[in-house]
Specification:
About 4% of the residues have low confidence. The chain is of the alpha+beta class. It has 3 domains: 174 residues; 81 residues, Signal transduction histidine kinase, dimerisation/phosphotransfer (DHp) domain (Helix Hairpins), CATH 1.10.287.130; 142 residues, Histidine kinase-like ATPase, C-terminal domain (Heat Shock Protein 90), CATH 3.30.565.10. A hairpin with a 4-residue loop joins strand 1 and strand 2. It is 47% helix and 19% strand. The two termini are 56 Å apart. 25% of the residues are buried. Helix 3 packs antiparallel against helix 4 and helix 6 packs antiparallel against helix 8.
């Protein structure tokens, strides 16, 4: 069974079947037990009534053999009395269907003669107390045999002291007929009920899984068409299927955005690589034809630019692949001073304010790349000053790089961290930039558990703040 509907229908049917069979058996057992108890009570009442008459020396009522079969058996097995019309019986003290001639002192009484109103009151006998013994048996009356429940009561007759056991029966035919009727009703009703349960479960499950089938069909269509702009239908309900549909659409949206970013990345990378490669090729072709016109510094500059772009693309690819940063301890203040000292001859010098001992944990080369990108960006846009400071704020170490340039407009403060994004002013001032520096810086910051934001510096320019978790003393 590969269908969820079939599995649900069969599972529900089996569960209901087991429950109904168990409940049906319990009902039958309880019903039979109650009916047998009722027959026991009826047999006990008849046995004690007959025993009372026997104890007083009176003749028992032996007229109704079908509803009240009675047999009185002496201690030696002699049948003292038996109901009229009984031709065979079992489950009593003796299988004899007729009274027998007993020995002295044990002659049978007058059967059926109950006209004893004028007789003197006989001496009372003794009837055994306590719960009587019960047994199953059968009685045949006029050729018809039926099951009976017998109660046995021991009694001693007054006067002659004869001890006997009175067996009185209650018919079980009515009880067995009732149990059989209930059993047949269950045998007929159980399959019908199971069929109803299976059908209803099939229909309900089918209706519940219709949205899932719609989601599956739409996902198959999306896979075939490769159109990630499509979305699966979302049911109006608030159940698990609706949440599945919403999560699927969110996944499709994220996948579409990722694929779109990948496409833009490839297109922008191709565009950025084409310019220096074309320039370098032109210079080499001119140099090959006219060696005296070869612009060696320009060719070197284009080669360096191409090398830097390739390195940036390689780093982005490693970051996208989920490469984990190292766990080296980095003195951020010392790193800033070292980087600033290497830029002493630049157009705008970097002023450093950093204390010692402010350490972070991560990849030294990647953190140095972030610092270099921030300083490059600040020097490109500053008018007269670039400052870099390192401070401790709570559990973080904050590196701040500020300049006194035009700053970043509020509407562009998040866009500048996108890949291959350069503001118009940046393009006019630095045509060599590829728009990857700040994107790399933010990716590295997030990979190290930190953040990179931009705001307005006190001097009016841009203020970039890199926050990284401070290294633990035990690291």
């Amino acid at each position: 069974m590969r269908s969820v509907r079939a599995k649900a229908a069969v599972g529900a049917t089996l569960v209901v079947a087991v429950a109904l069979i168990g409940a049906g058996l319990a009902v039958l057992l309880v019903l039979r037990d109650n009916l047998v108890n009722a027959a026991d009570l009826q047999a006990e009442v008849t046995a004690r009534e007959t025993a009372s008459r026997f104890a007083l020396g009176r003749a028992p009522d032996l007229s109704d053999a079908e509803d009240r079969p009675i047999q009185i058996v002496a201690e030696n097995g002699c049948v003292l009395a038996v109901s009229k019309g009984v031709t065979a019986l079992s489950g009593t003290g003796s299988p004899q269907p007729t009274a027998q001639s007993c020995g002295p002192g044990q002659e049978r009484g007058d059967e059926g003669d109950d006209d004893d109103d004028d007789e003197p009151e006989p001496e009372p006998g003794k009837i055994a107390t306590g719960k009587p013994d019960f047994s199953d048996g059968s009685v045949t009356v006029d050729g018809d045999s039926a099951p009976y429940r017998f109660a046995a009561v021991e009694v001693t007759r007054g006067g002659d002291g004869v001890t006997a056991t009175v067996y009185a029966g209650a018919p079980l035919a009515t009880e067995e007929a009732a149990v059989e009727t209930v059993r047949e009703a269950m045998l007929v009703g159980l399959p019908v009920l199971l069929l109803v349960v299976g059908s209803v479960t099939w229909l309900v499950t089918r209706r519940a899984l219709q949205p899932v089938e719609g989601i599956r069909a739409e996902m198959a269509a999306i896979t075939a068409s490769e159109d990630l702009s499509r979305r699966v239908p979302e049911p109006a309900s608030r159940d698990e299927v609706a949440r599945l549909a919403r999560t699927t659409n969110e996944t499709l949206a994220a996948l579409e955005a990722s694929v779109e970013r990948q496409r833009r990345f490839v297109a922008d990378a191709s565009h950025e690589l084409r310019s220096p490669i074309a320039s370098l090729r032109t210079q080499l072709e001119v140099g090959a034809a006219h060696p005296e016109l070869l612009d060696v510094p320009g060719a070197v500059a284009d080669t360096v630019r191409l090398q830097q772009l390739a390195a940036d693309l390689l780093l982005l690819a490693r970051l996208d692949a989920g490469e984990k940063p190292g766990q080296a301890r980095i003195d951020l203040g010392a790193l800033v001073r070292e980087e600033a000292s290497q830029r002493a001859g630049d157009r705008i010098a970097v002023t450093v304010t950093a204390a010692d001992g402010l350490e972070v944990s991560g990849s030294r080369s990647q953190v140095a790349r972030v610092l270099g990108n921030l300083l490059d960006n600040a020097q490109r846009h500053a008018r007269t000053a670039v400052t870099a400071s390192v401070r401790r704020e709570g559990r973080d170490v904050v590196l701040a790089v500020a300049d006194d340039g035009e700053g970043v407009p509020d509407a562009e403060r998040e866009r500048i961290f996108e890949r291959f994004v350069r503001l118009d002013d940046a393009r006019s001032r630095d045509e060599g930039g590829a728009g990857l520096g700040l994107a790399i810086a933010r990716d590295v910051a997030e990979r190290h558990g930190g953040s990179l934001t931009v705001g307005r510096a006190p001097a009016g320019g841009a203020l970039f703040e890199l926050r990284l978790p401070a290294a633990s003393p035990g690291e």
